[in-house]
Amino acid sequence: MIRKSTFFSHTRRAFARFLADEHGATAIEYALIASGIGAAVISIVFGLGTTVTNNLYNKVSTGLR
Question: Which residues constitute the domain of residue 54?
Answer without folding.
Answer: 31-65
